[in-house]
Amino acid sequence: MRIRSSFFSIFLLSSSSSPSSSFFSSRFSSLSAMSPGANGDFKSRVTVVGSGNWGSVAAKLIASNALKLPSFHDEVRMWVFEEVLPNGEKLTDVINKTNENVKYLPGIKLGRNVVADPDLENAVKEANMLVFVTPHQFMGGICKKLKGKVTGEVEAISLVKGMEVKKEGPCMISSLISKELGINSCVLMGANIANEIAVEKFSEATVGYRESREIADTWVQLFSTPYFMVTPVHDVEGVELCGTLKNVVAIAAGFVDGLEMGNNTKAAIMRIGLREMRALSKLLFPSVKDSTFFESCGVADVITTCLGGRNRRVAEAFAQSGGKRSFDELEAEMLQGQKLQGVSTAREVYEVLNHCGWLEMFPLFSTVHQICTGRLKPEAIVHYRDHKA
Ligand SMILES: NC(=O)c1ccc[n+]([C@@H]2O[C@H](COP(=O)([O-])OP(=O)(O)OC[C@H]3O[C@@H](n4cnc5c(N)ncnc54)[C@H](O)[C@@H]3O)[C@@H](O)[C@H]2O)c1
């Protein structure tokens, strides 16, 4: 059974519990679409929507499992935002020829069963399991293009870290997917620097689900490998907010590194950041659980992203330049087409805090945004109590 977007609201600031949870429990029972049918002939088809650094690694993980699990079709489609490479070849053609995403994940074979497709509609056409993994700023446009095109019993999972801010309040990406496409969406977040997982170094991740544990288990099965341990958690908003807000903390950690403030300071910033993550998540969704912050999506992701992620690295360069070089310039120079999420998330969080009158309660979050926009110097990251907006 499909849901209509008007049936439920995306997150509203006044909500006092997980939105529409009972609605989801009654409406979404499409597990049958994700398991072999009675005669054993039904196989799930997976499409990965996105093909950046993490998108490519996600496709690799899923492709290796699709080959092993009898309830999945071998072929995994991957939608590619088409680009022409410096040698004039199309990225999609090169991926299909070499089995490598030479731009976003060079040197790693994705699996022969990954098929790159530049046509979004065609890529999702036959899939009943959609994995969304693009920078969050593109998700609004992608959902608009797919509206009305995703039919049948379809389940989604979002690996996207970020949110949209609307007049009514923030809209998490899983809610955007549900609202626009009329399908249930889980989330997968965690301490997951893509390049490390690409070379099969052990790490963990968290699947956040709304109601159906069985659907969460299917996603866990699809992503899990001996080097990628996935745990389901019944707290979709908590998991997604962890993944989103930690990028703001990473920017703060980058400032600390750029100013060579040392490990104690960075640990303090991580602790304060984690505290603000938890406080804001619980204000937005009172149903968010404390225990979620001890999962891979919580404290572990804060640690890895403050030690090694791209947000930290670019923020470090920003602070080293004394705030004189813009984030746009640094992103273009340092990330070769990859996208920075923390700066836009800091702005979005600031808008929410401002709108709700909560700025003073979240000095780290609000200070990060003000440093990013040049209103405060990078040094303010440890003086933020003196610079309340
Ligand atoms: N890279 C990581 O280590 C990592 C780890 C965990 C989560 N994530 C999250 O995964 C999501 C995807 O990140 P990524 O690392 O796969 O991407 P990326 O930053 O490596 O690559 C950018 C992607 O955006 C695409 N793109 C550019 N312009 C576009 C447009 N107009 N419309 C649609 N797509 C466009 C590019 O083709 C490319 O695939 C993000 O939310 C990120 O926070 C990333």
Automatic annotation (TrEMBL):
Concerning Gene3D superfamilies, the annotation shows:
N-(1-d-carboxylethyl)-l-norvaline Dehydrogenase, domain 2 (1.10.1040.10), NAD(P)-binding Rossmann-like Domain (3.40.50.720)
Where in this chain does the record put each Glycerol-3-phosphate dehydrogenase NAD-dependent N-terminal domain?
A: 46-211
Q: Which InterPro entries match?
A: 6-PGluconate_DH-like_C_sf, 6PGD_dom2, G3P_DH_NAD-dep, G3P_DH_NAD-dep_C, G3P_DH_NAD-dep_euk, G3P_DH_NAD-dep_N, NAD(P)-bd_dom_sf
Q: Where does substrate bind?
A: 161, 310-311
Taken from the UniProt entry, a GO cellular component term is: cytosol
Q: Where does NAD(+) bind?
A: 50-55, 81, 138, 194, 310, 339, 341
Pfam families per UniProt: NAD_Gly3P_dh_C (PF07479), NAD_Gly3P_dh_N (PF01210)
User: Catalysed reaction(s)?
Assistant: sn-glycerol 3-phosphate + NAD(+) = dihydroxyacetone phosphate + NADH + H(+)
Query: What are the GO BP annotations of this UniProt entry?
Result: carbohydrate metabolic process; glycerol-3-phosphate catabolic process; glycerol-3-phosphate metabolic process
Keywords in alphabetical order: NAD, Oxidoreductase
Enzyme Commission number(s) of this protein: 1.1.1.8
Q: Where is the active site?
A: 246 (proton acceptor)
The Glycerol-3-phosphate dehydrogenase NAD-dependent C-terminal domain sits at 235-382
Gene Ontology MF, one? glycerol-3-phosphate dehydrogenase [NAD(P)+] activity
What protein family is recorded? Belongs to the NAD-dependent glycerol-3-phosphate dehydrogenase family.
Q: Which PANTHER family match?
A: GLYCEROL-3-PHOSPHATE DEHYDROGENASE (PTHR11728), GLYCEROL-3-PHOSPHATE DEHYDROGENASE [NAD(+)]-RELATED (PTHR11728:SF8)
Checking NCBIfam families in the record gives: glycerol3P_DH
This protein is called Glycerol-3-phosphate dehydrogenase [NAD(+)]
This chain's source organism reads Brassica napus
